[in-house]
Write a structure and sequence with these properties.
With 332 residues, the chain is of the alpha/beta class. 45% of the residues lie in helices and 16% in strands. The chain has 12 helices and 13 strands. The strands form 3 sheets. The protein has an 8-stranded parallel beta barrel with strand order 1-2-3-4-5-8-12-13, surrounded by 10 helices. Strands 7-6-9 form a 3-stranded mixed β-sheet, with no helix packed on it. It is globular. It binds zinc ion. Zinc ion binds next to loops.
């Protein structure tokens, strides 16, 4: 048993309370490798933003859960080296799918876990979530739960259709489970193809898809039911078209990749939404950088030369999200 507190990590409780009061959201960035983690920590340290490091099932399969946890521990020390005296870093399990997995993360030093039982019938979702909460809270680890179903594909989490969260369920759910935050479904979606062309309109000038707006009426109704309760948005990448265009012009093939417009996320960040998950955007930044370097310098074979540029691209992206979209800069 290792407490996250020994590792210099923090849970989400105070962070979320401040974010709701202050009208901003905490960035939750997924990480799978060293370059991505360096970029996240540099961006957070330089902007003095609290940050949530997320470990998904795909990341655990790719990089190994043990290694990722030690990397997060190293990230705290790295942040201090960068001059961030008291780093506000959360290590969070993204989409935990069983009590055993959540328990193993709590026992191993994670400061926050998500139990995603949103695909189960309502009462089973409550029972499993409550079981995780009861365990995690003994160690002051915070728990995110989910109500409603997001469309899209995220690692091994996928669903063809979305079901908006039912606002009439949230009070009962939050009260009976004791969860610390709630991920809701209001039209965000996992992956880089958040909407089919049929769901969108097309900008006549650029030919680019224009996505349907988020269901802010559902968010408002949830906030009315649960005033001041921390709300989480998954699947909130914006799929920057500059990266998509760069990738496509350099031999890639990402037709009609589309995300959530940043102005809608900015609006959400000012509400009770206090955690916004962004993963696909950094994948796009990484891929655009690698394609660019290898196209411009076909003789390059030192991975540091293209992974280094990828790291710069990602750091730039993270800073932009922190400062221009979530408003979390200067809050840590
Ligand atoms: Zn998610």
């Amino acid at each position: 048993m290792v407490s996250f507190k020994e590792l210099g990590l923090v849970n989400t409780r105070e962070m979320f309370a401040k974010a709701i009061k202050g009208g901003y959201a905490i960035p939750a960035f997924n990480f799978n490798n060293m370059e991505q983690l360096q970029a996240i920590i540099k961006a957070a340290a330089e902007t003095k933003s609290p940050v949530i490091l997320q470990v998904s099932k795909g990341a655990r399969n790719y990089a190994n859960q043990t290694l990722l946890r030690y990397m997060a521990q190293g990230a705290v020390e790295y942040a201090k080296e960068l001059g961030w005296e008291k780093p506000q870093i959360v290590l969070h399990l993204d989409h935990g799918d069983s009590f055993e997995l959540c328990k193993s993360c709590v026992d191993f030093g994670f400061s926050s876990v998500m139990i995603d039982a949103s695909h189960l019938p309502y009462e089973e979702n409550i029972a499993l979530t409550k079981k995780v909460v009861d365990y995690a809270h003994q160690f002051d680890v915070t728990v995110e739960a989910e109500l409603g179903v997001l469309a899209g594909v995220e690692d091994e989490v996928s669903s063809a259709v979305s079901h908006y969260t039912k606002p009439e369920e949230v009070v009962d759910f939050a009260t009976r489970t004791g969860c610390d935050s709630l991920a809701i479904s209001i039209g965000t979606s996992h992956g880089a193809y958040k909407f089919t062309p049929e769901q969108c309109t097309r900008d006549p000038k650029t030919g680019k898809l224009v996505p349907p707006p988020l269901a802010f009426d559902v968010l408002d109704a949830v906030m009315e039911q649960l005033p001041g309760f921390p709300i989480v948005l998954h699947g909130s990448s914006s799929v920057p078209q500059e990266y998509v265009d760069m990738i496509n012009s350099l031999g890639g093939k990402l037709p009609d990749a589309i995300g959530i417009p940043e102005e809608q996320l900015r609006k959400a960040a000012k509400s009770a939404v206090c955690k916004i998950n962004i993963d696909s955007d950094s994948r796009l930044a990484f891929t655009a950088a690698v394609r660019k370097v290898l196209t411009e310098k076909p003789g390059e074979f030192d991975p540091r030369k293209y992974c280094g540029v990828a790291r710069d691209f990602m750091e730039e992206l993270y800073k932009h999200k922190i400062i221009d979209v979530l408003g979390s800069d200067g809050k840590a």
